């Protein structure tokens, strides 16, 4: 994922202390958004559109790879509903539809760019931890009841 420019509003809020109370509506929205973007297809579509700009439906499917037409349709519809993607139908024969990220979708991509950078920065540490864990799992563990 290419590095996105930081959002000045978000960066200003990061410098402030956390709020004393949390608005339940905001908390519910955060849980909803995390649930959706944690879905691998949403993240892959977000990344494909961020990298390539506007794509036709079939191009988007190829850019994402290994996604069924049904899942691609469901995911882009949900993203359109949430205001992350703009769907444009061209009235030609045969008709074609293309998708592009909205400014809201771009800003979500920028927010998750930090996760990409974090993973890139800590890749070696994560691989060492996984190898260490796998090594411990290979050794029979003593039962907790003994």
From TrEMBL:
Alphabetic keyword roster: DNA-binding, Transcription, Transcription regulation
Domain HTH hxlR-type: 23-127
Organism encoding this protein: Azospirillum palustre
GO molecular function: DNA binding
Family annotation (Gene3D superfamilies): Winged helix-like DNA-binding domain superfamily/Winged helix DNA-binding domain (1.10.10.10)
Residues of the signal peptide: none
Protein name: ArsR family transcriptional regulator
GO BP term (any one): regulation of DNA-templated transcription
This protein's record includes keyword Transcription: yes
């Amino acid at each position: 994922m290419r590095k996105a420019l930081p959002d000045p509003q978000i960066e200003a809020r990061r410098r402030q202390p956390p709020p004393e109370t949390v608005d339940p509506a905001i908390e519910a929205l955060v849980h909803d958004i995390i649930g959706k973007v944690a879905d691998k297809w949403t993240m892959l579509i977000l990344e494909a559109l961020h990298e390539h700009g506007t794509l036709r439906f079939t191009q988007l499917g190829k850019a994402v790879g290994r996604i069924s037409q049904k899942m691609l349709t469901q995911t882009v519809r949900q993203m359109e509903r949430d205001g992350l993607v703009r769907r444009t139908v061209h009235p030609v024969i045969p008709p074609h539809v293309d998708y592009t990220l909205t400014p809201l979708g771009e800003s979500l991509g920028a927010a998750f760019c930090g996760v990409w950078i974090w993973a890139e920065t800590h890749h070696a540490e994560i691989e060492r931890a996984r190898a260490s864990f796998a090594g411990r799992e290979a050794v029979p563990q003593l039962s907790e009841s003994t």
